[in-house]
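// run 5 | inverse folding | seed 20
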């Protein structure tokens, strides 16, 4: 009986490991449905695989073991992490957008959350290299059209750059870079893989780093939207220094020492739920 249980556990863990490697990450609730076992069983299996150094546990699931500087989880995996923090950040950042302005939203799950809070802002022009972000506005436009509304929710002009699609559903490469280079934005909302004093803003994707550099160069004001887990993380390629950032919008999980360090380099630090955001801050 014990031998059979051990064998089943090993089979289960092999399936989990294959799923993690094939998809770039999995959620606990997905594994419980797929394997038809309890949440506790899946978590025990993940613990065992993590102890063997085969996976890395993250909040709500697991991702492959890889160098921190090069690993890039897919959009679905990242979207399941720090959900509350991302929503809080999105709500805090939204008042920075003025009606009639031209903004840019980079790829990422936090900018995706922010997009949902901007569909009611009138007369926006939105440039994005995120397929997911563009879809938020396009869905709102279709809903407005069905309701016979021309202005109001869903009335934003959306420009989606071309390019090569990354695991996080961002479009990058020479086509995206050229499109962004010819434009000018009042404010850029930028999602990041990592942020630190030494490395600045970084990403594990070299092509995405170059596309983000073009975004930063084309923006009058740069606002980074990033939850506290991004602080101290360094990706393979840096694309901007902290001196090029005007504001950071983050969540209350950011340690006090990190806050003090950030304030030394940035003009504005907004901690969602703890500070008032200046409406349309100088854009």
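// decoded
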């Amino acid at each position: 009986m014990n031998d059979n249980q051990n064998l089943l556990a090993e089979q289960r863990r092999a399936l989990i490991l294959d799923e993690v490697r094939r998809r770039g990450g999995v959620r606990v609730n997905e594994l419980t449905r797929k394997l038809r076992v309890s949440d506790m069983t899946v978590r025990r299996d993940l613990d065992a695989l993590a102890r063997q150094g085969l996976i890395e546990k993250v909040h709500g699931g697991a991702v492959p073991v890889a160098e921190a500087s090069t690993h890039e989880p897919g959009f679905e995996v990242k979207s399941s992490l720090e959900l509350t923090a991302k929503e809080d950040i999105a709500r805090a950042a939204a008042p920075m957008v003025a009606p009639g302005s031209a903004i840019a939203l980079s790829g990422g799950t936090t900018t995706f959350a922010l997009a949902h809070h901007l569909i009611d802002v009138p007369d926006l022009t939105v440039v994005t290299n995120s397929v997911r972000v563009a879809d938020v506005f396009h869905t709102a436009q279709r809903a407005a059209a069905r309701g016979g509304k021309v202005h109001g929710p869903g009335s934003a002009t959306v420009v989606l750059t071309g390019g090569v699609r990354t695991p996080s559903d961002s479009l990058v490469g020479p086509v995206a870079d050229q499109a962004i280079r010819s434009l000018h934005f009042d404010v850029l909302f930028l999602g990041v893989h990592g942020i630190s004093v030494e490395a600045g803003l970084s990403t594990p994707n070299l092509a995405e780093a170059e596309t983000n550099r073009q975004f930063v160069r084309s923006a009058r004001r740069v606002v980074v939207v990033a939850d506290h887990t991004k602080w101290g993380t360094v990706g393979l390629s840096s694309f901007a220094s902290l001196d090029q950032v005007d504001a950071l919008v983050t969540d209350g999980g950011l340690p006090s020492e990190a806050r003090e360090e950030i304030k030394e380099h940035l003009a504005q630090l907004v901690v969602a739920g703890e500070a008032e955001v200046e409406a349309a801050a100088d854009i």
